[in-house]
Fold this sequence. Notes:
mainly alpha
Amino acid sequence: MNTELEQLKYQIISSIVSLNDLASLSEVKNFLKNTLDTFQTTKKTVSIHVDDELLFWEIVCLAAIDYQKAIKELANQPLSYLFEFEEILAQKLYNLDKKELALTIYDSDSISKDDFLYVRCFIVCQGRFFYEKIVNKEIQMINQTFEPLLYLSEKAYFEKTEVEFPLLPTSVSYETGSNKTEWI
């Protein structure tokens, strides 16, 4: 998201420099129109990502309160969003996959990979504010679990299509220990 904005900023600055090379008013008008079109496209893309993230937090918080309602809410979204939801979830769980956080609730010898994954699911279901406090180490981990979060997309997909959810890879793995730099 920030990369797209940085690219747009670079294009605008480059374009301002290019204005000196334009010979006619029509070239200036065309240039400004193209710059505006690029900005509008980038703005829509950034806005979609923000909306996806807000919807993600609404649904995961709902899952902690009423899991069946959360399945229905997610199933009411476009199919493409179910895959986006999985990607966002994988990113959030990956960001919490840190040995330092695990050691706040486990001894170094007794870290259960599955249990720590389910603890991270619980943290995500507590909402964005709580999640960010944990990620930023402002508060300690809580040893409570919420494994069903991992199956929310799968259940919503089945409710929507009556077909099994296709397991597509996400950009990161949420399995415990996959965030290699945080487990050294």
